[in-house]
Automatic annotation (TrEMBL):
It is found in: Cell membrane. It holds the Pfam family ATPase-cat_bd. This is Heavy metal translocating P-type ATPase metal-binding domain-containing protein. One of its GO terms (biological process) is copper ion homeostasis. Keywords: Cell membrane, Ion transport, Magnesium, Membrane, Metal-binding, Phosphoprotein, Translocase, Transmembrane, Transmembrane helix, Transport. GO terms for cellular component: plasma membrane. Residues 312-401 form the P-type ATPase A domain. Its main location: membrane. Residues 12-55 form the Putative metal-binding domain. SUPFAM superfamilies: Calcium ATPase, transmembrane domain M, HAD-like, HMA, heavy metal-associated domain.
Amino acid sequence: MAQSPEHDTKPCRHCGTPFTPASTDDAFCCSGCEYVYQLIHEEGLQRFYDFKGKSNLPPVRGKVFDEADFPWLKEAVAVAEQQALDDGRSTGLLQLKAHLDGVTCVGCVWLVERIASKVEGVAAPDLAPASGEITVRWEVGKSDALMQLAGELLRFGYRLTPLGERESRSRELRDLQIRAGMCGALALNGMAFTLPRYLGMPEDFMFAGVFDWIIVLSATLAFFSGGSYFIRRALVSLRARIIHMDVPIALGVTVAFLGSFVGWMTGHSGLFYFDFVSIFLFLMLGGRCIQLMAVNRQRADAEKQTLRPDAVRAAGSGERVESGDLVKGMRYEVDPGGVVPIASSVVDRDVTCSLEWITGESEAREWKVGAQLPAGAINLGRSVATFEAEEDWEGSMLERMGDGREGTPRNPILEKTLAIYVAVVMVIAIVGGVVWWARSGDPITSLQVFVSVLVVSCPCALGVSMPLADDLARMRAQSAGIFIRRENLWGRLKKVRAIWFDKTGTLTMELPSLVNPEAVKRLDDSGAYALAALTAGSVHPVARSLRDTLGVRGQKMRDAGARADAASVDDYPGLGVAWRDQSGRVWRLGRPSWAADEAPAGVDSVLACDGRVVEAFQLVDGARPQSVAAVDWMAGRGYQVGIVSGDRPEKVDHIGDSLGVAPQHRRAGFLPEEKAQLIKAEEAAGRPVLFVGDGANDALACDEATVSATVVSDRAALADRADFCVFGQGMAYLQTLWRIADVRGRAVMRAFVFAVVYNLAAISLCLMGLMHPLIAAIIMPVGSVLSLAIVAGSFRQLRR
């Protein structure tokens, strides 16, 4: 049997994400988590971990070492301040709604409140952990306090981002919660006044009529507030010729309400299902809320970036220009770390860029004045770079890649099953009603049989158990650092027969790994301070790798002054960076032949002081932990494993040989369209594909695959596009995900079998004329509870 890639992992002490420790003393998955853990204890906020409990957080990684720059926030705050000025307000509070990345639990809410309480001029924020939506408030004229809060939150691993389309999803969830709350209150109200009838209240009781009116009014309000949600969605699906779960729900609740209304008007208590209507709608809406909350939470956690780069500035005027407004011939400026949105030529001065965002390859390259860069290049320099657009945004590569698949993929098996289910139930109900009418000659009795069959056959058990199965699967996946974005992932995952990986960032780490990290640890305080200053704010892959290795020590030095000293660092495109300290010594970090008088051989970068080598660094594209075991495990299960990359053949062959990927399943030098064609051909050949990528050039391939995934880094280009996102550094997520899919599949099947047995027994009572509204009101919640217990019990085997 193939070796399990999970056996050598342990949870990170801060975020809980499983990782492979390099030694028994390692307690953190990354230097970012270590820094935040120490910061929390230094600030006396360790109760955060008590509130957090077993909830997992996304790994912090290197974002806490980034410079706190929020151009979108500055613009939004300026607009709010100007509006207050126009309104003549000089006191009071202004507010702004945003999204806070990294929030997952009530512990995060507690920590954010404590962080905000230490910033003068900022009021206590409102934070919803389910959606990550935050409302921040600050005193008029004290916008600097809000910027300070954003920086403090970033220090603890939380980044403020624009709300964007998340606002519409929050409104949808709030609408659903209001409907569920109303139906719950109306159900309790209806049950309170229905109970006397079930306990034998005489028909001539003086308040009997009043009770009936209250019951009818409660059910009517529940039907129009909650039932309309399912009816509207059922009509939409039927018009699209799709049988959705909402169709049998809408059918059952509509027949129950109309039949109850007929029974109330004619005085036949056997048709009195008003209490069923309210209870049923409350349970269904509650299950749907759980489902939508889970989907929103995972999308919010994963949406770090989209394929549309941030706005740039017009050269000369400095005015903000959205990427969608760029046209050929326009000159614009890109900040350090910014993305070149369209194919452009270099203006004024040479630049150092990487294609990490678009190809996943982090290697830095130098472009001379007049050279043309592809869209997606990242400005690695420490100063603003000027470019001239060589094309319009409309029709550009990134614009085409942004037009991804929309909506939720259909599930033909489920649609067919539901279609058969609805047809069978309708036939049974009609035949049962007709037979009873023929035998008894009583239309009311036959109507009672017809209504009772449709009422008890509503998929209530499945309606609450399937969302629970999805939520439990989501939580188990999250505990392993896997964030599910699309709720119908599990069925498609079971179809996969081939797994294709992009190379850099998926099979290898997103940044080059330091072969000799002890070189950083050997630095004395002056050397470490110089390295902290030289790498502060840089997006160069070598600088980011060294900064992460310097970790907590480097961050403390940046806080102590190295960040300010970084402003005097000089950038030499294609060579490195230099800085003169207060004693006049010149420190250099970069190419060995440039940084030092006598450079050692076989190293990639050196830190030198006045031409003398202080430390030399070796870097390599290291494979992710558990990658060999993961590939062995996948091959052992019969999956075809392949690598498709835009990188050079020798690099692809190197990683392919180390992981044991067959040469015929390696593709190098592939353009985005070629990657998509490969995946499309695999799908057409009957091999459904799981494609794992990380660069924007993988977007088209993601759209062609049955299942798509991305390993999220600090520059995740596919987080808003993939079916699931992985935040851990290892590859044990593959076996974990399949185990969860197997358990969820068994849980759903057991719940389905129970629902079939339950419905057969209930329908038999209906056809015998023995189903009473009281019995229906009892067996429905009992059946739902038993179904939930079956699902919960199935997931017990995944407990650690």
